[in-house]
Amino acid sequence: MSSSAQLDFSRRVSPRELPEWLDGDCSYEDFRDCMRSLENVNRWLLGYRPTLAWLERLPLGLSGPTHIVDVGSGGGDYLRRIAAWARRRGIAVRLTGIDVNPYAARTAADSTPKELGITWVTGDAMLYRPEKPIDIVVSSLMTHHLEDDEILTLLRWMEATVQVGWFINDLERAAWSSRLFGWGPWHRIVRHDGPISFRRAFREEDWLGLLAAADIPQEAATVERWRPGRLCVGRRR
Length: 237
Known about the structure:
The chain is α/β, with parallel strands linked by helices. The protein is built from eight helices and seven strands. It has a seven-stranded mixed beta sheet, with helices on both faces. The longest helix has 17 residues, at 28-44.
């Protein structure tokens, strides 16, 4: 992989055009170790901060447990952070993580204290039909794995499904962000996939176009840049 300064960040590269190793076949052990490495990425590069700050702005804990679903939950680190956040604030939550990767639920369960009561589901979130309605959907570092038409499907599903709001926490497409990421001591697959992820990531105009295509009014959603390297989209009902 050439230096990020020499790569073209002017457009979003399709995942089909530029695959990541993690999207292909790997062992359970490699998947588990990648998820642990990504947890370090999120911790050291302040990746949890945008999602928790967005949750802070919502009127939660008013009438019964809030059902929060993490789409593309991977190793479960975001829901563990949300569980700790809710506990500190005395907010009752019901937490569910959904991921299509067959190793994700096992990895998350092995890394999560059972007393947190988080449910891990393997499958397509678009087909998830829980007994309790979904109040909030969150997603982190997942949408850059999707083609644009798949992102539109996700946006429309969230619009039709959630009661309170949704929040997508992903990468900003920029050479400087990619260079910053390259300094970390990450797992070999994460080191390979990181620069690709930034080229498959987003700028504000990408999200504005996707929101318009999904018939979500621009004034109804927020597009927020968080340093270092995050571009997040949120919608409060």
